[in-house]
Amino acid sequence: MEDRIKELEDRLARAESALERSERLAVASRYASAIMHEVNNPLEAITNLVYLTKLQKEQPDLVFENMNVIEDQLKTLGRVTSQALTFHREQQTAKEIDLVEIAESALKLHSDKLLRHGVVVSRRYRGPARATVFGSEILQVVSNLILNAVDVLEDGKGHICVSVKRCPDCIHITVTDNGPGIPEGFASRLFEPYVTSKASGTGLGLWLSSRIIAKHGGTLRFRTSRTGGRTGTTFRINLPQSG
């Protein structure tokens, strides 16, 4: 009997490990897709400007103007790639990082999608808010919360507030939206695997996010409202601060 129980426990552990690897790939794919959108826009602008410059080669003033715009677009590309690489270089150990930088990086990485959907973004940073973390993992969690919020917002009417606050014994990162709120049937099981209200969702993003935050000694909680004049959802990450 003991051997049978141990075998079942081993199978369960392997299944959980495979599930976590699968979701990490899914999250990475979603993250990469967002970065591709950010890169594609300036690339299209540069391509069009190069074409125009060839046609306007006899007009030095227009050529000079085009070159200035191309330079600006190249700076945008540099910013996007720099932000993407800052926290995604391989980390063998956790490092002390200002979580305001992570929150701002997540917003910048998804600025194109936020703009396309007409989402108003507000920031409330009370830093520095330093914590010893794996930066790429916390960035993925914050990115996932932002993208989830965008998915439920009505185009042109959405508002997202990202805040970072240092408290006496911990740091709060919150992502708040004015969406329709989480359906009651999902709210009680939100951090379980395969639970989602989205037709195309895997139901694993919040499950993995909660595991990542727990690994850092923190918690991921939420509150939501679907009634009255104020609907919406707030997710709050609590992490121990450095020192």
TrEMBL record:
4Fe-4S as UniProt keyword: no
Superkingdom: Bacteria
Reaction catalysed by this enzyme: ATP + protein L-histidine = ADP + protein N-phospho-L-histidine
GO molecular function list: ATP binding; phosphorelay sensor kinase activity
SUPFAM superfamilies, A to Z: ATPase domain of HSP90 chaperone/DNA topoisomerase II/histidine kinase, Homodimeric domain of signal transducing histidine kinase
Matches recorded under CDD domains: HATPase, HisKA
Keyword Transferase among UniProt keywords: yes
Enzyme Commission identifier(s): 2.7.13.3
Residues in Histidine kinase domain copies: 34-243
Name of the molecule in the record: histidine kinase
